Amino acid sequence: MLKGKLLHSPEEMDGAMKTFETVLELIDSAKESIKIHMYVWRSDEIGNSIGKALFRAAERGVEISITKDQSAMMYERIEMNRKSYLPCEPSKLKRLWWKVIAPTFPDTFVEDQFVNGAGKKLINHTNVRIDWIKGVHTHQKYYLIDNQHLITGSINIEDRHRKYFDYMVHLEQDTLGEHFYKRESGQIAFDLNREIEFIFNQPMNGASRFEIKPLLIRLLKESKREIYIEAAYIGDPDIEDALKEATTRGVQANLLLSEKANIGNDNNYKHAEKIMKSGSARIFLTPKMIHSKMVAVDREIIFSGSANLSIFSMCNSGELNLIIKEPNLVKDFLSVADYRKSVSQEVKDPRILANYNRKIAFLQELHQKLKL
């Protein structure tokens, strides 16, 4: 039987503590294999702690496989301490693009003692294999331990998630890996009769399988009473159209966004203003960074994972979401979501959302569309 546990609770002070604690415990207890698929892996306290735990596991004989999106180094090198944990040199074209897009990022620089490329010793270990993804984007975030434990959701490997709103889920089952890999590879179709199912966008290895957007639009179209959304980044026009269609049927829609997102804030405000003016949803802003990607439909179905409601996630990037119907897990998600909504402020005047930089919003949306 597949067991699911939400690694978050209402009013938590550290939004990533339980996730990182569980990841480190599972790495230290791993016996055979560890598979990590990650977007951002920063060389900070947690980035180095996970790297050291993986090295200890490799020394025990555990086989470790890491899949890492190379383009995500842009965030590692532009934001915070500007240091990547895994050593890799990007192309001249990527470095040039980073210089173009960097002015659209807020200045978050912090000085620290950590080393850029600190994971060199780890990836040179004979029991460690790393696959750098180039040419396509893969935004997934998961840890698969001994093919029995899966931790997945919206948290990258970096300390700043401790101050964010996110969702991560720990799944456990003896045969979990078998079904997971069949879904990831596309050997079998997703089964909506399952209480917890894996939904993928898969552009890797020549594939072009984008399941998340069509299923999300279907869920929005089938909604009857209420849609609740927490989104780090928005902007996909088809999702906005589906949301508007739902509200014309009398469905109540609530959208939670960050008052000040770490990136893409101008584009968020641009689309939130449009959504509010069209009557498609009530908009709530929270002073804490909303990094979660979660949709609750009729308080019965949760659709959550790594996929933002942006053009990038919906159309271009590899992603992993869970569709959850298991009542206890749904209840846990809703408990956290209700608290987050209670500490957010509803926007009553769309002019508040109109206060954004048009040129920066254009560049931010362009970045979502380009495959750089």
- The CATH class label of the largest domain is Alpha Beta
CATH architecture of the largest domain: 2-Layer Sandwich
Mean pLDDT across the residues is 96
Radius of gyration: 20 Å
Going by helix content, strand content and strand pairing, the class is alpha/beta
Number of strands: 19
Proportion of residues in extended strands:
15-25%
Poorly predicted runs of 5 or more residues: none
Largest sheet: 10 strands, mixed
The tally of helices reads: 12
Tally the structural domains. Answer: 2
Overall shape: it is: globular
* Terminal residue distance: 41 Å
Fraction of helical residues: 25-40%
CATH topology value of the largest domain:
Endonuclease, Chain A
Fourth-level CATH superfamily of the largest domain:
Endonuclease Chain A
- The quaternary structure here is single chain
Structure description:
With 372 residues, the protein is α/β, with parallel strands linked by helices. It has two domains: 3-183, Endonuclease Chain A (Endonuclease, Chain A); 192-369, Endonuclease, Chain A (2-Layer Sandwich), CATH 3.30.870. Helices cover 34% and strands 24% of the residues. It has twelve helices and 19 strands. The chain has helices at 17-29, 45-59, 73-78, 92-101, 120-123, 176-185, 212-222, 237-248, 265-277, 311-316, 327-342, 358-369, and strands spanning 3-6, 33-38, 63-69, 128-133, 137-138, 142-145, 149-153, 164-165, 168-172, 196-202, 209-210, 226-231, 252-258, 282-286, 289-290, 293-297, 301-305, 317-324, 345-346. Strands 5, 10, 11, 12, 13, 14, 16, 17, 18 and 19 form a ten-stranded mixed beta sheet that branches. It has a seven-stranded mixed beta sheet with strand order 1-9-7-6-2-3-4. The chain has a two-stranded parallel sheet with strand order 8-15. Strand 2 (33-38), helix 2 and strand 3 (63-69) form a beta-alpha-beta unit. Helix 7 (212-222) packs parallel to helix 8 (237-248) and helix 9 crosses helix 12 (358-369). The protein is globular. The termini are far apart. The relative contact order is 0.15.
